[in-house]
Amino acid sequence: MACALAPNFAALIIFRFIVGVSASCPVAVVGGIYADVYKNPVTRGRAMAIFMAATTFGPLMGPIISGFIAPVSWRWTFWVALIVAGVSWVPLLLMPETYAPVVLEGRAQKMRKETGNPNIFAPIELEKKGMKQMITVVLTRPIRMFCFEAIVLFTCLYLSLAYAIFYVFFQSYPIIFVGIYGFNYGEEGLTFLPIGVGATIACGLYLYWDYLLQKAKARDAPWSRSEEYRRLPLACLGGPLFVVSLFWFGWTARADIHWIVPTLAAIPFGIGFLLLFMALLNYLVDAYDVFAASAMAAASCARSLAGAVLPFAARPMYDKLGVAWACSLLGFLSLGMCVIPFAFIRYGDRIRANSKFCQYLAQKRQEGEEEEERAARAGAAKGAEVIELPEVKV
Predict the structure, then answer these.
(1) Phi and psi, residue 73, nearest 5°
(2) Are 113 and 154 in a shared domain?
(3) Is 146 contained in some domain?
């Protein structure tokens, strides 16, 4: 609303900054929410796939809506965004807390009130809190994971490039379809729709791969037991498709070639783009579990910065190199990044074994399994049913 009512350009920039800060929250926490809600990696992966396919259509609808509405008034693009944001905000008011330590904290508070025992605590209540703890542990964790976790670092680099190229298209499409083919801005916005078609196909490919994986697990195929084979083969397919689409788009965007040819290049682009995000982000969530929100925060911050900064170079790059070689440059950069998911498949288990975060998670899982086993033995000895209770400390 503030952007729609901005009195001058400086105010608009400030309000856009506030929009960016606010809008970064759901992007950062969604991986953590899915890790909390869906403990089964299969269910969690499917939910993430559908979520990412759906959210791809947001940026695609922007050029279409603004292309037709902006000629009336640029302010109306923000009024439409306000309507969408307002409608989608209402269900968030009804969402419950999903982070297990905080849920246990609420249960402990309720038990203290009901029993009158002031010595009942959830584990999170016994942890150090305060601004120092917030700054040195919570806020710096995504930075530490980006700097010292190879999986997070290289995932961030690859996805940042892909995300930046996606937003470079918001600069290159007007150069091509308005400058070369003479489209108006509304028609130019419609040329983004094939990316959405590709994203839909990618979602279907993900679900089909998941089906094949479950069949392989049912017959106990050796490769199906690998954590890396659960997600990463999709990125191995998406990376080359992403590269092919860039060369296809760049070398067919000419006045002597019909506009439908470069437009259709967006289909493999959408497939490759979404497969990369589905595979690599799900791999992050699976690898880091309760730390998934921090890993996702690092990934979302890195790609958002790249998506905001790199498009500034788009027009000078296209003016200097031309459409074909500008797209080729992006294609060669993407080709270099293609090795990352293959390297994860080959060395991912060793990388996770040397990760402090993954070691901690493995230790906690082992302790949890041992505790369940002891409880089961105790229950069997007493001939009683074992009931899991909330973890509290007295």
Answers:
(1) -170, 130
(2) no
(3) yes
Between vectors from CA 291 to CA 288 and to CA 293, what angle results, nearest 5°? 110
For residues 246-274, give the mean pLDDT.
93
pLDDT, one tens digit per residue, over 320-332 is 999 999 999 999 9
Tens of pLDDT, residues 4-20: 999 999 999 999 999 98
Same domain, 109 and 204: no
Specify whether 241 is located in the same domain as 283.
Answer: yes
> Please, which pLDDT band fits residue 389 given cuts at 50, 70 and 90?
very low
How many structural domains comprise the chain? 2
Q: Rounded to the nearest 5 degrees, what angle is found at the Cα of 234, between the Cα atoms of 239 and 236?
A: 40
Q: If you search the block for the tokens 């506009």, which residue do you land on?
A: 259
Residues 154 and 297 in one domain: yes
117 & 162 share domain: no
Q: Which residues contact 265 (CB under 8 A, 6 or more apart)?
A: 194, 245, 246, 248, 249, 252
Complete DSSP assignment for 328-389: HHHHHHHHHHTHHHHHHHHHHHHHHHT-HHHHHHHHHHHHHHHHHHHHHHHHHHHT------
What is the extent of the structural domain holding 182?
42-71+131-352
Residue 136 shares a structural domain with residue 218: yes
Q: How confident is the model at residue 278 (pLDDT cuts 50, 70, 90)?
A: confident
Residue 27 lies in a domain: no
pLDDT in tens, 117-147: 888 877 777 766 667 767 766 778 888 888 8
Shared domain check, 62 and 195: yes
CATH number at residue 178: 1.20.1250.20
Same domain, 155 and 203: yes
Determine phi and psi for 70, rounding to 5 degrees. -55, -35
DSSP 7: S
Q: Are 273 and 241 in contact (CB under 8 A)?
A: no
pLDDT the model gives residue 373: 65
As given in the structure block, the two tokens for residue 163 are: 């995300």
Q: What is the mean pLDDT of residues 181-210?
A: 90
User: Inter-axis angle of helices 266-288 and 232-252, to 10 degrees?
Assistant: 150
